[in-house]
Amino acid sequence: MDEPDTPESPARGTTPPFADLNDRQREAVEHGLATGGAGPLLVIAGAGSGKTKTLASRVARLVQAGADPNRILLLTFSRRAAGEMAQRVGRVLHRVLGQATTQAPPTFPWAGTFHGVGARLLRDYADRIGLAPNFTILDRADAEDLMGMQRQALGLADKVERFPLKGSCLAIYSRVVNSQQRLDQVLQQSYPWCFGALLELKQLFKAYAEAKHQQHVLDYDDLLLFWSHMAADAAIAADLGQRFDHVLVDEYQDTNKLQAAILRALKPTGRNLTVVGDDAQAIYSFRAAEVRNILDFPAQFDPPARIVTLEQNYRSTQPILAVSNAVIALAKDRHAKDLWSDKASSERPRLVALKDEAAQANWVADDVLRKREEGIKLTRQAVLFRTASHSAPLELELTRRNIPFKKFGGLKFLESTHVKDVLSVLRWAQNPRGRLAGFRVSQLLPGFGPASARRLLDAIEAQPDPLAALKAFKAPPAAAGEWSTLCALLMDLAANSEWPSDLERVVEWYQPHLERLHDDAPVRLADLDQICRIAQGYGNRERFLTELTLDPPNASSDESGVPSLDDDYLILSTIHSAKGQEWQSVHVLNVVDGCIPSDMSTGTSEQIEEERRLLYVAMTRAKQHLALLTPQRYYIRQQHRTGDAHVYATPSRFIPGRVARMFEQVVPAMAASHGLPASTEPQIDVGAKVRGMWD
Ligand SMILES: Nc1ncnc2c1ncn2[C@@H]1O[C@H](COP(=O)(O)OP(=O)(O)OP(=O)(O)O)[C@@H](O)[C@H]1O
């Protein structure tokens, strides 16, 4: 990502603190300070208008005015965003407090995601809400497996009419929880084809909830659900509310109803509650985020929240902002904001028409190298796309030309078998009642099959002391030796946890199994070294397991390792993972109908509006150079049996003629004819299609 242009950096030590804020930003930062307490505040900020900077400055200002960093709850969208925010606040505080840069800035122990903070609070209050304090958290894949087991056990998998698959069942369940709607409403609105299965789904979800309870496990959604139920208890709510003097929330446009309810319970009058967001950047409705949360925020309090609107964009040049504004101006329902920039430039954004995705990959690689020659490092350039698979041809081209890149979004480091195996051992030691972890780990032993695993897990379930049951278990004779080694390891991990050496002990135990089970063991071992390195950044085992499950490196947008300082690599990212970032130069791939909007998301006008906002988010990441690419022919993976695996595309509906004219239109080495880009090859082989009719 781009190196932040941080006006708050200590190098500018001579500027008085907060002098670089504009009047509106300062208004938000100072809100309520003069009167010794603040009513609710909503900062509605356009893209690149210093929303994150303002929030960081407000936190610093609160600390300067005497607030205790341990009593500030700072909720961000990702763990990475929380880390960045804490660093920014630290930099401002250094200046404000006149500290030496070598002095460590204050830490904010309660800066994190809703899910991460929820997990910690639930542990703190576990004994008061009937929850085992050693609960472990299921990632999505494990939750799906557990749902699948219940689906099987209830005989739903064998029904004559096809019952939704485990992934769909979990998605429905998750939507019900996060949107706080009834199951029948969710089915009607979002999954009409499953409506006939209403009663069975209810039965399934009940069994799923019961199984989680038995095994002392929670899924992601439970972290919010349990938190909101806990906050509904008056005594706990009061206790929770007074733990935090200030609550500040970033990216509020992407919160869901459950999260809004949690905040209301924490700060019912809205006192000392600050939320910041941009309704034009709401891109998470598929996770039941509710853009109405931000639109309706002010009116839920009496007196209503103060609204501060930030309209000066500091990121992009005026021509980039003009085309981005033109794209979002066509949106239906939005909080009107007139974004402006004083960064003049004679360079217009480019709209590039290309023959196909291969030509697109070539053109982008050329352009990226050209920009590097002009002095823009690769890390300050990004290529963005709607769907992770859209970058495949470009990845090949970059590899061919030896251009290093890092991809954000869509990578699945933590879902690889060997990493899951090792984490499962830790999870099992943490919570011996967790069936999924136990099922997986026990079967790593030679001679230990699914039937023995089930027998073992049933024995553990039946005993009040799970470790005693583990010890007493009679393993199959072929596995007896390995079983006693594993047992000793688990007992030891349960009794004496030392971090991060716990993980190293597990890897040591696992290595011979890895070598027996996988031909490419050395490569996989390197991943395990990587995870041991990552582990060093966490205070203890429980924190590591919780946070890694909630916000895994690489599966969301973090990097799995810290690249060395002189590493230069191009950023490839899904638009979702590019949220909150900025780069000098941005290319957006496949700006054609079918890709943006994605043909999976054109069912309702709300979906189309969200796709429009996605394109807006992508375009507003650019500081100086922006290019939208429109390949005329692109590859589709799921195609009709008789298809040729390609479709012909029209430029995205979000760039109609009058918006397109604001761009510099580029048709590389092809003379345009009849409004279509010229091509050296026929675009459709009509003859072949006619002949094909008789095949
Ligand atoms: N008052 C200011 N003076 C100079 N630069 C500023 C000012 N406010 C913000 N910036 C710069 O503008 C850029 C965008 O700021 P920031 O990332 O805080 O915006 P944002 O509103 O969170 O963006 P988005 O919502 O689009 O992700 C950053 O490079 C930031 O340093």
From TrEMBL:
Entry GO MF terms:
3'-5' DNA helicase activity; ATP binding; ATP hydrolysis activity; DNA binding
Instruction: Please provide the record's keywords in A-Z order.
Output: ATP-binding, Helicase, Hydrolase, Isomerase, Nucleotide-binding
- Does the record's keyword annotation contain Iron? no
Q: Which residues fall in a coiled-coil region?
A: none
Q: What is its EC number?
A: 5.6.2.4
Pfam family of the protein (one)? UvrD_C
Q: Which reactions fall under this protein's catalytic activity?
A: Couples ATP hydrolysis with the unwinding of duplex DNA by translocating in the 3'-5' direction; ATP + H2O = ADP + phosphate + H(+)
Q: Record's GO cellular component, any one?
A: cytosol
Q: Name one GO biological process term.
A: recombinational repair
Q: What class of enzyme is it?
A: isomerase
Which InterPro entries does the annotation name? DExx_box_DNA_helicase_dom_sf (IPR013986), DNA_helicase_UvrD-like_C (IPR014017), DNA_helicase_UvrD/REP (IPR000212), P-loop_NTPase (IPR027417), UvrD-like_ATP-bd (IPR014016)
- Decide whether keyword Transcription is in the record: no
User: Record's family?
Assistant: Belongs to the helicase family. UvrD subfamily.
According to UniProt, the name of this protein is: DNA 3'-5' helicase
Taxonomic placement: Bacteria, Pseudomonadati, Pseudomonadota, Betaproteobacteria, Burkholderiales
